[in-house]
# Entry
Amino acid sequence: MSLRKDFLWGGATAANQFEGGWDEGGKGPSGADMLTNGSFSSPRLITKTWEEGLYYPNHIASDFYHHHAEDIALMGEMGFNVFRMSIAWTRIFPTGVEEEPNEEGLAFYDQIFDELHEQGIEPLVTISHYELPFYLTEKYNGWADRALIDLYVKYCRVIFNRYRDKVKYWLTFNEINCGTMPLGNFLSLGILNKGTREFTDQADIPALRYQALHHQFVASAKAVQLGHEINPDFQIGCMIAFMPAYPRTCHPKDMLKMQRHWQNLNYYCGDVQVRGAYPFFAAQLWKENGVTLAVEPGDMETLRKGTVDFYSFSYYMTNCVSHEDSQSKVGGNLIAGVANPYLEASAWGWQIDPDGLRYTLNELYARYQIPLMVVENGLGAFDQKEADGSVHDSYRIDYLRRHIEAMKEAAADGVDLMGYTPWGCIDLTSASTGEMAKRYGFVYVDSDDYGKGSFARSRKDSFHWYKKVIASNGEDLA
# Structure
């Protein structure tokens, strides 16, 4: 069971959760900048202005903006040959509607890409990762308005031309299927409906949400075509939050519910971006949600022509589904589900299932037959920093080891797997709760949930382990 010799090893972050410097270098406010902190038991709040007495964790995050040289050197020390990051749209166009881009923001990413290449690291750039310019929420209610298609394409044209010789791998939208869920209104689509205050309890208009998602599909397809025109060597992928579910029992109704779960949450978006058309089950999904899409002439042809080169996804856990409402629920990435009695769970209630990753990889490759990449995976945990600065995170090593073993098994099954970038390779702010205490990284950042600390970086035990894994191309997992 061996991975391909050109396998891409690295880690993943997002500008809004990692970068900080939220009002420096000409950057404008994004939707993420309007989110307060929360916790496992209390939701983040969405505010239209920065309210007195509330803390906004994305403003500082991990302060990569001022630590990038050190952080990239640490990635190089681990042996990364790829780093998944995102460009903050509001560093390039502070409100999204400017005619000319912000040169200071463009120069910042020039510096980042140069530093990465000096370490032998390829950037894998997410173009939009949960950080729509907040002005576009105020002016257009986010992606609910078709005007955002052209604004996004303008942004893509600028960064594709600027970095055509520095970036090869691109992702158009992060976890685009988040838009199939109510949580995705503000997080992914920039929609802020009247009455919304709590991040996890947003006022939802499904018809508006699916229309906004259609606009993102068209924008993504246009970006793929544009990118290939600017540089035919660009590899442009989609990114899906994959949420596998098992039937809780062998009851036929559980099987049918599981099938619908996979279709509506996992395949709806991937089918559009990989196959270039809405899937057969979309009509029933729209009917159930009162959706009548406004499709303009040329949209479907655009989707057909703008299919992606590879498929990337996040994988953290699995849940079960049941036709019986009485089953106990457990948490997860973006959605909760029914508990699986055969799995253990993390401190945040996310069930740990390496075999589910192998299953998912096989299902995806059978469906799409294009290269796959796991661009988020990892264990959020409370890490204890010792007096000598060490962090003994054997639990994280065990989690990652088992998932890498599952990837190797999938590769042996015949899956074309191109790379692996565990989430939060350097500790960062949680998207769901805004906490820093939920740590994923190989590198510890000395900051608490309120941005208090030295922001000093220190290597965890997993840092040294992952360095060995990369050097052996996944052969040495001890």
